[in-house]
Structures are given as C-alpha cells and as structure tokens.
Amino acid sequence: MSDQQFESSHHRKQDISEEKEKWRDDEQNIVGKYTEKQQNEKKTKKWPNSRENIIKGSIEDEQDEEEESEDQWYDKENIVEGSIEDEQDEEEESEDQWYVEEGMADEYAEDKQDEEEESEDQWYVEEGIADEYAEDEQDEEKIEKRRYDTNKIADEYAEDEQDEEEIEKRRYDTNKIADEYAEDEQDEEKTEKRRYDTKKIDKEYLEELQDEEQQVEAKEQSGQVSGIGFINQLRNQYKEFVAAASERSGQASRFGFMRQLPSQYKELAAAVCFLSILPFPRNAQSFFGSEEAEPQPQLVIGSAYFPLIGLLIAFIACLLPLAIGPSLHLPPFVLAALLTVALVCLTGGLHLDGLMDTCDGLFSGDRRERKLEIMHDSHVGAFGVLGGVCILLLKFAIFASLDPLRLALALLIALPIARWAMVLAIYLFPSARLTGLGVAARQTVTRPRLLIAAITSLLIALVAGHLIGFAVWMGGTLVPIIIGTWITYTLGGLTGDVYGALAETTEVVCFLMLAAMH
Q1: Domain range for residue 334?
Q2: What one-character-per-residue DSSP string does 270-330 give?
Q3: C-alpha to C-alpha distances, 53 to 56, 60, 67, 273, 312, nearest whole angstrom
Q4: Residue 153 included in any domain
Q5: Does the reported pTM lie above 0.90?
Q6: pLDDT given for residue 241 in this prediction
Q7: 250, part of any domain
Q8: For the purposes of burial, counting CB atoms within 10 Å of the CB of 91, is it exposed (0-12), middle (13-18) or buried (19 or more)?
C-alpha cells in the first residue's frame, strides 16, 4: 500500500465526518422549530372563546401546515435515518477499506523488509566483489612488478651480452695486434738477416778488393804492370759499363710504354665495371698478346679513370634528350622521368643504395658503432627511403625544367664532376672501418691518380661549359670536402656507402647550379 492511497483514505474519512456533523445540525434545527410550534399552541388555548371563531380557520390552517410540516419532518427523519444508514454503510466500507489498507500497509512493510534484506544481501555481495576486485588489483600489481623485474633482467642480460661482445671484440683486436706485432717482428728479423747478409757480402767484397790491390802492388813492385797499362785497363772497364747502360736505356724506352698498357687497360676495365653495368672485357690478353703483367694483389678500381666513366655514362644518357625524345615527341615530364630511371639503371643503383644506407645510419643510430651497424645492414629504413625519394624528385624536377640541349650539357658536366668527387673523398678522408671496400679502395688512390682524375674532370667541364663549367667544378669539389668533414666528425671516417652518397649529392648540386645559372 502506497502513501498516496493512505492519504486518499484519510481524506475520505474526514469528508464523511463533516457530512455527519451537517446532518446533526439539521436535526437540531428541525427539533427546535417543532418545540416552538407546541409552545404557540399552548398559548392559543388560553385565548378567549371570542377569538376562537376568528382564529379557528387560521388554527385549522396552521394544523394543516403542522401536519404538512410533520409529514416533512417524518420525511426528513426518514432521510436522516437513510443518511445515517448510508453513513454506517460507508463507515463499514471505510473500515473494510481501512482493514484492506492496513493489510496493504503490512504487505508494503513486508515488501520493504524484503527490499532491505535484498539490499543488505546485495551490499554483502558488493562488499565481496570489492574485496575480490582489490585482490585482483593486488595480483595485477604483483604481475606488473614481475614483468618489470623480467624486463629489467632482460635489459641487464642484453647489456651483459653487449659487454661480452665488446670484450670479445677487444680480444679479437688484441689478438690481431699481437699477430701484426709478430709479423712485424718476423719482418724485422728478416730485415736484420738481410742486413747481416749485406754486411757479410760487403766485407767479402772489401776483402777481394784488398786482395786485388795487394796483387796490383805486388805487380807494380815486380815491374810486370806499368802505370800506362793500369790506366788503359780502367778506361776499358768504363767503356764496357757505358755500353751496357746505353743498351738497357734503349730497351726501356722501346718496350716500357707497351708494358704499361695492360695494367692501364685493367684499371680502365675495373672502373667501368665498378661504376656502371656496361659490358666491358677485363682480360687484357685479348688486346695485348699473351704477355702477363706484374701481379697486383691489392684491389684495382681505376680511380684515375672515374671522370671518363662519368663522361661515358653521360654520352649514353644524352641519347634520350637529343635523339629518342625528339623522334618520339615525348613530353618534358615523360623525358625527365625516363632520364632519371636511365641514370639509375646505368649505374646499377650503386650510388643510390649507398645514399639510402648513409641516410639510415646517420639519422637513425645514437652511437658510432650503432650507426655503422645500420649502414652495414642490407635492409632500408624510413630515412633511407626519404633520402632516395628526395634525390630522385630533385633530379626529375631539374630535368623537366631544362630544354634538351642544356640538359645534355648538364649531363656532360655534372656526371664527370660527381665521379671526381668520389676520388677526392677517398683520398682525403680516412676509412671508418678496419676492413671493407672503403679501406681497399683508399689504398689504390695515389697522388698521381688523384691528379689525373682532377685534370680530366676539369678539362671536361671547361670544354662543355667554359666559365660556367669551371664554376660548377669548383662547387662540385667543395661538396665532398664539406660533407666528408661532417661525416668524418660523426663516424670517424668514410665508408663505401658514403662514397656513393657523395656522388649522388654532388650530381644534384651541379644540376642545381647549372639550372640556376641558366
């Protein structure tokens, strides 16, 4: 039973009690009027007889009125009795309703108790869930702590492994140094032995000279050899020595140049195969007979011919803007895209690969060893892809902005200068690793080869571009010096990948200078 139902039943009871009071007031008014009439009748009986006839009719009228009023009173009595009975019925109904409401109130109280019990049970359940949740949180904290401890142990294990690798590397370096020291000691022993043998030979030679002098003195004393005969003997020995020397110089001037041709051809073939994918026979016997040249145990890359190989690649690339493009009526953008792809294909992507590896190493690692390790990895990272895309986009934009003739001149100037930049970087800066292609290449670049490469690239730039070509040559020469200094400060030296990156960067700088000057 709700509170609203209880209030409505209470208001009904108040309305019934008010109606009862009203009916009681009406009864009292009727009874009062009736008593007043009886008193008036008693007064009329005392009046004289003379008036009886006068008021007789009025009395009869009054009696009729009284009868009517009595009838009305009886009707009102019946109405009052009926209302009282109705009130009693309503009271009984209200009592029944009150009992019903009381029952509903009891049920409501029981429902409330049940709800309270359920809420208490639910509270206990929630308390249990909260306890379980707290236990789960504690378990998760323990698990997280264990994970942290596990990660810490893994980091310590990785650090220990790195330390072991460094120790192993140091051991390897120590063993290598010990081996080199042993080799140096052996070389010193051999040198000392040779010195000892030389001294022994000199001593024997001096003894022989002393014996000969003693013999000559003995002959002079005996008179067998005169002073004129001794002078003639010395003159004959000098003539024989001059004749032998002249014969040897003639043979050298006749056959020295021919002997140098096979070795120079090998260097040219090595340069072509190293910087491009062009097919080139590397066997010098097919051109210079079966005479074998002197053995060359070190690597041969032909650094003196690098600018000539750049010129050869430029001649092949010039076919696109000067012959193929006009004959096929190719648009400038299509021609620029084909030329960019052709340069990558002619070089085998060697320089572009070096550029991407260099970008990955310089901009990814923190320590010098990590940078070199990333550069040595064959996979390409995000920085490498960005560097390669930027270089190719710059080349494409410059090629598309130049007309075919100026584009051909730009190729003839920029490609030889880029190869000259590689030779200059190999000669000037140390190698970042103890082994590898960079170390072997640096051993082959001598001062004569450097001068030949510089003069060749400068002559090509002057012939193709005159003063503009000289300015571009100066700019291309500064690029490897500036970038090589920065990379040497970062890595401690240069690698083979850096040489390729310098070639690509110098090409783009030369193309930009030519586009700006035009």
Answers
A1: 300-517
A2: HHHHHH--------THHHHTT-------S----GGGHHHHHHHHHHHHTHIIIIIHHHHT-
A3: 5, 11, 21, 171, 171
A4: no
A5: no
A6: 47
A7: no
A8: middle
